[in-house]
Automatic annotation (TrEMBL):
<feature type="DNA-binding region" description="HMG box">
    <location>
        <begin position="545"/>
        <end position="613"/>
    </location>
</feature>
<dbReference type="GO" id="GO:0005730">
    <property type="term" value="C:nucleolus"/>
</dbReference>
<dbReference type="InterPro" id="IPR048993">
    <property type="entry name" value="SSRP1-like_PH1"/>
</dbReference>
<feature type="region of interest" description="Disordered">
    <location>
        <begin position="609"/>
        <end position="706"/>
    </location>
</feature>
<feature type="compositionally biased region" description="Basic residues">
    <location>
        <begin position="517"/>
        <end position="531"/>
    </location>
</feature>
<dbReference type="Pfam" id="PF00505">
    <property type="entry name" value="HMG_box"/>
</dbReference>
<comment type="function">
    <text>Component of the FACT complex, a general chromatin factor that acts to reorganize nucleosomes. The FACT complex is involved in multiple processes that require DNA as a template such as mRNA elongation, DNA replication and DNA repair. During transcription elongation the FACT complex acts as a histone chaperone that both destabilizes and restores nucleosomal structure.</text>
</comment>
<dbReference type="InterPro" id="IPR035417">
    <property type="entry name" value="SSRP1/POB3_N"/>
</dbReference>
<feature type="compositionally biased region" description="Low complexity">
    <location>
        <begin position="497"/>
        <end position="507"/>
    </location>
</feature>
<feature type="compositionally biased region" description="Basic and acidic residues">
    <location>
        <begin position="532"/>
        <end position="544"/>
    </location>
</feature>
<dbReference type="InterPro" id="IPR011993">
    <property type="entry name" value="PH-like_dom_sf"/>
</dbReference>
<keyword id="KW-0227">DNA damage</keyword>
<keyword id="KW-0539">Nucleus</keyword>
<dbReference type="InterPro" id="IPR009071">
    <property type="entry name" value="HMG_box_dom"/>
</dbReference>
<dbReference type="InterPro" id="IPR000969">
    <property type="entry name" value="SSRP1/POB3"/>
</dbReference>
<keyword id="KW-0238">DNA-binding</keyword>
<dbReference type="Pfam" id="PF17292">
    <property type="entry name" value="POB3_N"/>
</dbReference>
Length: 706
């Protein structure tokens, strides 16, 4: 027999809604962790009084009753898991897991039984429905009627607001059945009534959400916020977490209370209550209880008379009454020495606090993200400037949070923190590259305004030079400066320190001629990779293996015709929606079958890609060899042609050596223009002849001198 049993995707019924989570059964007890809020319900094994197994809407469910009257309901079990659970309860909890089915006759006449915090409406021995009395917000009575009103649940699509019971009169004297029914309900109902005096009152506290100044009255079971316009009553059972966070200016403190369910103001829901305190504000507090009551209830955590900073007193009282730990920032320290990072979320500026087990952002809107619900984080460049970056968080439910406009100096500290917490980083390989890129901008960003000023000064000088040129020269010269063919050259001249004022000088023209080829070469160099990219895009091999389909696409291809036949005339969009719903509702066993098929297809694809890559490499090597062979042949042909040309020129030079010698001694100044129709070709021929013909002997030179 295993010591523990674990179940995923189990739903806990809380106030009419089903909360997804994980259930774990061990020797010590039962633990359920809510996936949405992270709240943990721990039921000790010694507290369990009864276990009931029954069929419910989501398969089969487990109902646990404790000795102090609490009821816990968990749904989402399979029928085959009953034997395993029954044996576990017998072995470790010494309880029989009883099977009880709900009555489905549809009758509305029966018996009401009160057991602990549960109202059960039974027909015979079978229950029809059960109402946890903690869900009741109000109970009113009539002549023969009792009306129960319930807390509204924001998570449920449809909420039950009211139930009325008809209570027939009895013949017994002195006992009113309606009043007896109402008293049984009110004794266990979650009805907030401000009866008696408050333990203590904090006057005119600054509240950021909901915004305003509120008096906070502390009662034994709930918190009362009293403002000029609105009043809120917050039961301590709805408080999830408490946070005490220092402001970046080191002069203020945030006290954050996380609530589930949230408080309501019209259609607005506030999941967080955020109070802002000044560190310099002190208070002397006296509790409205005698010292014995304080010692008995709070066991030394509070005293009757206390004094200190206002934020310390509020947090101390809340911690004692709610009985929850206060979360403070951990070891993280930003670039400026603060324990938070300035950033923006949804166009509002705020502070992001990296905690030991999550992130919290204050204050508008407040966001708390636990590490265990984070799928991955991502560091992205800022969209508007290089001085900042964005920090993105995506949860396992697919929700994405983007905290933007974070100063680049915070990158190293934040990355090291995320890495130390072992969170998945989407662009982990870019750590060094991003650090270098941010360091590259360090010098230029520090004097960014100076660089802008220098650029303005240079543009002013250019305008002055253009104005001087236009006043000295003619209008035609100014028009020529706007010639598209010469525009680049003129700009280059203006930035050239050696350029003369006049644009018609010979040096300036020669400079232009020298600069033109360099610019053309630069343009060609920039365009080469673009052509390669276009060629690579166009040249997609049709013989390459096709990528494998996912498990969902394989299932969709196989089930498309079936869906069409079941829903004739269905459109493509409706078909895809219907297919998504069917896939989501499919059991894990069936999904695993399609996952195996997708895995087989992926292996086949990888095998085909290996064979394809080997074949493509051999073909490319063949084409390269043929290209090299062609180039070699072309070179050989060019060499033969050059040799023939050199041999013919040497023959002509031996026939008229004297003429060649006399021409070789002539300088450029004495060469007449009518000796040849193209002087350029003659110069080239003479140079080639000088290079090809052997140097003259001493006898030839002597005869030439005579």
């Amino acid at each position: 027999m295993a010591d523990t049993l674990e179940f995923n995707e189990i739903y806990q019924e809380v106030k009419g809604s089903m909360n997804d989570g994980r259930l774990r059964l061990s020797r010590q007890g039962v633990i359920f962790k809510n996936s949405k809020t992270g709240k943990v319900d721990n039921i000790q094994a010694s507290e369990l009084a009864e276990g009931v197994w029954r069929r419910v809407a989501l398969g089969h469910g487990l109902k646990l009753l404790t000795k102090n009257g609490h009821v816990y309901k968990y749904d989402g079990f399979r029928e085959s898991e009953f034997d395993k659970l029954s044996d576990f309860f017998k072995a470790h909890y010494r309880l029989e897991l009883a099977e009880k089915d709900l009555c489905v006759k549809g009758w509305n006449w029966g018996t009401v039984r009160f057991g602990g915090q549960l109202l059960s409406f039974d027909i015979g021995e079978q229950p029809v429905f059960e109402i946890p009395l903690s869900n009741v917000s109000q109970c009113t009575t009539g002549k023969n009627e009792v009306t129960l009103e319930f807390h509204q649940n924001d998570d449920a699509e449809v909420s039950l607001m009211e139930v009325r019971f008809y209570v027939p009169p009895t013949q017994e004297d002195g006992v009113d059945p309606v009043e007896a029914f109402a008293q049984n309900v009110l004794s266990k109902a979650d009805v907030i009534q401000a009866t008696g005096d408050a333990i203590c009152i904090f006057r005119e506290l600054q509240c950021l959400t909901p915004r305003g100044r509120y008096d906070i009255r502390i009662y034994p079971t709930f918190l009362h916020l009293h403002g000029k316009t609105f009043d809120y009553k917050i039961p301590y059972t709805t408080v999830l977490r408490l946070f005490l966070l220092p402001h970046k200016d080191q002069r203020q403190m945030f006290f954050v209370i996380s609530l589930d369910p949230p408080i309501k103001q019209g259609q607005t829901r506030y999941h967080f209550l955020i109070l802002l305190f000044s560190k310099d504000e002190d208070i002397s507090l006296t509790l409205n209880m005698n010292e014995e009551e304080v010692e008995k209830r709070f066991e030394g955590r509070l005293t009757k008379n206390m004094s200190g900073s206002l934020y310390e007193m509020v947090s101390r009282v809340m911690k004692a009454l709610v009985n929850r730990k206060i979360t403070v920032p951990g070891n993280f320290q930003g670039h400026s020495g603060a324990q938070c990072i300035t950033c923006s979320y949804k166009a509002s500026s705020g502070l992001l606090y990296p905690l030991e087990r999550g992130f919290i952002y204050v204050h508008k809107p407040p966001v708390h993200i636990r590490f265990d619900e984070i799928s991955f984080v991502n560091f992205a460049r800022g969209t508007t400037t290089t001085r900042s970056f964005d920090f993105e968080i995506e949860t396992k439910q697919g929700t994405q949070y983007t905290f933007s406009s974070i100063e680049r100096e915070e990158y190293g500290k934040l990355f090291d923190f995320v890495n130390a917490k072992k969170l998945n980083i989407k662009n982990r390989g870019l750590k060094e590259g991003m650090k270098q890129s941010y360091d590259e901008y360090a010098d230029s960003d520090e004097d960014q305004h100076d660089a802008y000023l220098e650029r303005m000064k240079e543009e002013g000088k250019i305008r002055e030079e253009n104005a001087n040129d236009s006043s000295d020269g003619s209008g035609e010269e100014t028009d020529e400066s706007f010639n598209p063919g010469e525009e680049d050259d003129d700009v280059a001249e203006e930035f050239d320190s050696n350029a003369s004022a006049s644009s018609s000088s010979g040096d300036g023209d020669s400079d232009r001629d020298e600069k033109k080829p360099a610019k053309k070469a630069k343009i060609v160099k920039d365009r080469k990779p673009r052509k390669k990219q276009l060629e690579s895009k166009k040249g997609k091999d049709p013989n390459a293996p096709k990528r494998p389909m996912s498990a969902y696409m394989l299932w969709l291809n196989a089930s498309r015709e079936k869906i069409k036949s079941e829903h004739p005339g269905i459109t493509i969009t409706d078909l895809s929606k219907k297919a998504g719903e069917l896939w989501k509702a499919m059991s894990k066993e069936k999904k695993e079958e399609w996952d195996r098929k997708a895995e087989d297809a992926r292996r086949d694809y990888e095998k085909a890609m290996k064979e394809y890559s080997v074949g493509s490499k051999s073909e490319s090597s063949k084409t390269e060899r043929s290209k090299k062979k062609k180039k070699k042949q072309e070179k050989q042909m060019k060499g033969k042609v050059e040799k023939k040309g050199a041999a013919s020129k040497s023959l002509s030079s031996t026939k008229s050596p004297a003429k060649n010698l006399s021409e070789s001694f002539k300088s450029k100044e004495f060469v007449s223009s009518d000796e040849s129709s193209s002087g350029e070709s003659k110069k080239e021929d003479s140079e080639e002849e000088g290079a090809a013909s052997p140097p003259p002997s001493s006898e030839d030179s002597a005869s030439g001198s005579d």
